[in-house]
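S1.2 Input.
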Amino acid sequence: MNKTFPLQLNPALRGHWLHTLPLPLLEAGLVIAWSSGFIGTRFSIDYAPALLVVFWRCVVVSLLLLPFVLRPLRQTSFRVLLKNAAIGLLAMAGYMTGVTQGIALGVPAGLAALCADLLPLGMALLAAACLGERLAPKIWLGLILGLVGVLTVTHSVLGLGDAPLWAYGLPLAGMLSLAVATLWQKRASDASTMGLLPNLWLQCFVSSFAFALIQGSQGSLAPIPSTGFALSVLWTVGLSTFGGYGLYWICLRRSSATRVASVLYLSPPITLLWAWMMFGEPLSWQMALGMMISAIGIALVMRAERR
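S1.3 Output.
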């Protein structure tokens, strides 16, 4: 008998307008917004270090949300705040630091993105090994098919690079950090009692200190007075944080962790579409084939979970 996470809707979302939106529509928005983060990173590296942009992204989100979250934060117990802060550090600081620092040390961007895209399989393996969760064979088949699609899409941009051997573990560590945060958030019922905005504010607030510590050890934390830097921060604030992380936690509250993670298998081909529109990078039939394979895998996961 399969042991899966409960799919009951969190009380914070009952009666909310987000509950009225079809889940596939939210998942489509998640894929578009999540893939925008890779494009924002590529755009920003021409103007500033990646972690400097991420630091100011967290600072801006914290300042923007503060007036709207003060009251609910005061009404939340310290234990719940502490738990959500820890989840935020894993999901945001751990994930983004692992990927960006790996690239900074010479890990090819395509390989780092592939490591990040192992999230569905990594989360399934962690759940099986640490939580005793048993997934149906069709779900495992869907996850593997999704990964085959990702490999098909990214095959032409993969390379080994010349980074030190230990640096290749950083993107994997970032992926595992997000996987642990996702499973923790899904399992801890009291961690989901906070509203979306207070939770997002808390995660950005605590992560800003982690990014300040890492980036501060490498250079200045002062913002760079340029249009490119400002656009990079605004892009990642709006699309990557409010859109990407916001929709990620919303979908996680309305669905299972396995389904939400598997949907992100569509992130690589959508990222390539972003790159084609913004940077004129070429598309190929290989990318379309990989997207179709990933879509079949995701459909298998969704169908098996409905049963």
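S1.4 Remarks. Residues 252 and 260 are 6 Å apart (CA to CA).
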